[in-house]
Amino acid sequence: MRKALSGTALFGILGLVAIGLALAPGCGKAKKETLRITCWGGYAKPYVADFQQLIKEKHNIDVEVQITNPTDQDEFFMAVKDNTADLISPPIELPKTPRFYAYSAETPYLQPVDVENIPNLKNMMPVFRDDTTPIFAGKRYGVPYNCGPYGLAYNADVIDAAPTTWNILWEPRYAGKYTINNNFPKVNVWITALALGYGYDDIFDIARLDREKVQRQLNVLAKNAKSLWDGAANPDEFPELSLATTWGFAAQQANLKGGNWLLASPKEGGTAWIDCWYIGVGAEGITKTLAEEWINFMLDPARQADVVKSQGVSPVIADVGDLLDAKDKAMFHVGDEAYFKTVALWRVMSEETEEAFNNMWEEAKTHRE
Hints:
eight-stranded mixed β-sheet, alpha/beta, globular, single chain, 13 helices, five-stranded mixed β-sheet
C-alpha cells in the first residue's frame, strides 16, 4: 500500500511538472498573434525583429507586426475609428482636436494604458511625462515617444552663417530655393506669424492674429517655395536647395547622403511636436498587452538613442548613457529640460482656428504657378 501511494504521489508530481513546463514561457508550441501598427515611416519597421525576439522569450508568442505608414494625420484617426490598427503614433494633441476627438462616451476610439506595464515611463523627462495633453479623466492614454521641431534647416555648403530669423524664407534671393510642408497647414501659419512678431500666446488662436496680414505673408511663402512636401521632406531634393522646413528627418537623411545640413535657431522661437503611442479601443486581451510591450520597448535607451541616429529628432527619456556622443546629445537636446521650455509645444486649437488655418493655406497655394 505504501509503495502504491508513493507511485501515485510520484505520478502526480510528474504531472504537475509537465503542466508547469507546458505553461512556462519559452516551452511548448508558441502562440501566434498579430499587432497592427499605424505609425509614421521609420517608427516601427527597423525594430520589429528585436521586438519579436523579446516577445518570444517573454511570452512564448510568435508575433506578426503589420505596419501601415500614413502620410496624413487623418489616417491615424480613421485607423482607430475603423479598428484597423491596435497602436497609432499621432501628434500628442490629435485625439483632443475637435475634428478627431477620440474620447466621446458614445464612441470612444482609444483606451487608457496600464502604466504598470510601461516601467520605462519613469525614465521620461518631466517636460514630456507631466504634459497633460494625453491624459483624459485622470487616466493616461498616450505615451510620448519622440519630439522634434518644425525646424528651419539650412545648407551649410551654401549659407555660411546660421540663419537667425524665419524671415530668411521671404528674402527674394531664396525664392525657388526652399521646400516647406503642405499637409499640416497650421505649421506654416505659425512660422509666418512668428516672423511677423507674434508670440506663442498668439499663434494658436486665429482671434489673436491679423488674418489679412498673415495671409499676405503666407501667400508669398507658398508662392516662392520650390516644392511642398507631405509626410516628410524629400532628402533627394536637398542638394538643389538652400533652405528647408523639416521635422528633422530629412536633414538627417540628406546628411547621410553626403549633405551638410544644420538646424537653425530663429530668434522668434519655434514650435515642436511630440508624437505619442496611443492604443485603439479595439485592442483586447493579449493584443493590448503586446501594444504596451511595444510602447515600453520603444522607450528603452537603445531605441531612444536611435531616435537621434535614424530619425534626426529628440528622444523623450532623460538619459541614453553612452549610446550617443556629446555632439549628438547637444544638437538634439538629449535630457535638456530647459531647452524644451523655450519652444512652443503643439497645443489643441479650437475648431474655428483649425478651419481658418486650413483655409488660409488653401488660399496661399492658389498663388503658386
